[in-house]
Every structure is written in C-alpha cells, then in structure tokens.
Specification:
Mean pLDDT: 92
Strand order of the largest sheet: 2-1-3-10-4-11
Oligomer: single chain
Shape: globular
Order of helices and strands: HEHEHEHEEHEHEHEHEEHHEH
Strand content: 15-25%
Low-confidence stretches: 3-17
Distance between the termini: 61 Å
Length: 319
C-alpha cells in the first residue's frame, strides 16, 4: 500500500463522526425579525434551552428585513455544518414567501434541510386601547369613515395575508404599511399613523390592556387562543372560513449531515415536550407542535399550497 493510501485511510479513521463530537463550538441561531418581536421571544427561549442540552453557547443573531427574507437568505447561503440554524415562522418565511414575492434569492424547497416543527400560534387584529374601538365592527365602521379606509401595519407575510383577507371579507381598501420592528409598529398605531395592527399573539399579549397599550379585537386562527380565551375568532364574527395560524420550525442549510440534523431534532423535541416548555408556551400564546425532519418536509409541501390559496383569496399581488 502506498503512502497516499495510508494517509487517506488514517485521515478517514481519524475524522470524527459528524454528530458524535457535534457541537464543538458555539452555534449561531438566526432570527428573521427584530429584538423584542414575538419571533425573537421564541427564538431566544429555544436557543437558551438548546445551549443547555448541547453544552455550547447558542448565540442569537437578529437579521430583520423584507418580511424575514434577509435572514432566510443568509441561512440559505451559510455553511452546511450545523453551526448556523434558523428558528423561524416557516409557514411565513418558507411556505408563504414564494406567493408574496415575484422572486426570492433562495429556494425554500431546495436550500434548507428541515429539522423539526416546534409550535403553532395565532395572529391578532389589535388597535390603540385608548380609542373607542372595541370590536371588529367598530373598526370596520371607523375605517370606512376614512379616506381610502385608513392604514394597517404588520411586519410579516402572515400578518399581511391575515389583514388582506380581512379587507376582502369586509369590503375595505385599507393601505398596508410594513414595519421592520415591533416598537415602530406600536408607535405608529399609538400615534394614529396606522389604524390597526395585524401581528403575532406572542408579542401582542405583552402589550395588551389593562396594563398595555393595545386592545386585541380578534384572533385569526380557527379556534380561540388558550392565552386569549375571551377574544373571538374572525370566523365567529362572521368573516367566513378564517384559519391563519402560522407554525414555527427549525431549518439548517441544505447539505447539513443527517446525523447532525437528527441530533438537533431530538434536542428540539426534548425541549418542546418538557414541562418548562408547556408553561412557557401557554404564557406566550403558543401550542406545542413537535415533529421530525420527514413530517416537517411533508408539512412544508402541503402548507406552501395552502398558503398560496390564502394569498390568492386575499388578492395579494406579488411584489
């Protein structure tokens, strides 16, 4: 046997199994949205728990912009070694994005390896709590009294789809205003720059009256949220079929070794099914939704088709 062959064999046997020594250093956890947002809350909570199981730091990096596509593109182009992952509202950033944008710098179906689903949640329609608007009919009446029916704000694909579908069902032409950060959206609704917000319940419950500054008028899911049992669904209010309930999941760049994907999936499912998670999710308006790489891949395929139908129903033109 020649020296080259001996060297190659030595290298082969010296190389550690991908999952056996993973992780050997810190992991970067990329968040699509700004610090303090509902997405940021869940990303930081899961990242903290992951660091305890992995035995290495898991550092959150916020990369907001363009309804989550900035961070998603960053992860798509990252090294496929398990040290960059994204905890994301995948129903929005992966399933809905192809229907919202004319072109994307990444392929949601090919550029990522699914790890597992985590949670699902509702979005809400909310207004300034100091205003006399107390119901969805009150909001629609106030909008119809304004030139071009006023403005609404959101920072995600899901929020836009929910609000645009509400517009179709109520016959208003309210103008969409995008926001990068929740603090900006909150300031805009309190100043009257926008008339209502379409945002995730996780962030909205932290701003809710009587101690907060928002009044939540309705949830966008098919069933009432466990964190908001007194808030009606839009379906209950006569808006027809309305089931806008996004779900969070974990992805890594395509090509990440399967043993690493499986190790991450096991850790994340261990976190999601823990008693600690049960309490956190209940407080944060989430429902547990554990899964696997295979179940997430199948869900992403069906959800891409489903969200396409919602986008068409909402009459959203790709930008």
């Amino acid at each position: 046997m020649g020296r080259t062959s001996i060297f190659l064999l030595a290298t082969l046997f010296a190389a550690p199994a991908p999952a056996q020594d993973y992780p050997a250093r810190e992991i970067r956890s990329i968040c699509n949205f700004s610090a303090g947002s509902g997405a940021d809350i869940i990303v930081r909570w899961y990242s903290d728990r992951l660091s305890k199981l992995a035995g290495k730091p898991v550092v959150v990096e916020n990369k907001p912009g363009n309804q989550g596509t900035v961070a998603t593109d960053y992860v798509a182009k990252s090294k496929a070694d398990g040290y960059t992952l994204m905890i994301t509202p995948a129903s929005s950033t992966l399933a809905t994005a192809p229907h919202i944008f004319k072109s994307l710098p990444f392929d949601p179906a090919k550029d990522f390896a699914p790890v597992t689903t985590l949670t699902s949640l509702s979005f809400v329609i909310a207004v300034d709590a100091s205003k006399p608007i107390k119901t969805i009919p009150d909001l629609i009446a106030a909008l119809k009294a304004k030139p071009k029916n006023g403005f609404y704000g959101t920072g995600s694909n899901t929020g836009q789809v929910a609000a645009e579908l509400l517009k179709v069902r109520t016959g208003v032409e309210t103008t969409y205003v995008p926001f990068k950060a929740t603090v900006s959206a909150l300031a805009a609704v309190l100043s009257g720059e926008v008339d209502f917000l379409s945002y995730d319940a996780t962030w909205a419950v932290t701003q809710r009256e009587p101690h907060g500054r928002l009044r939540i008028l309705a949830v966008t899911s098919a069933k009432r949220s466990g964190a908001l049992p007194d808030v009606p669904t839009l379906s209950e209010l006569g808006m027809g079929e309305f089931d806008i309930a996004p779900w969070f999941a974990v992805v890594v760049p395509a090509g990440t070794p399967r043993p690493i994907v499986d190790k991450l999936a096991a850790w994340f499912n261990q976190i999601t099914t823990s008693e600690d998670a049960k309490q956190f999710l209940a407080r944060s308006a989430f429902d547990a939704f554990p899964g696997s790489p295979e179940s997430m891949a199948a869900l992403l395929k069906t959800e891409t088709e489903r969200w396409g139908r919602w986008v068409r129903l909402a009459r959203i033109e790709p930008q």
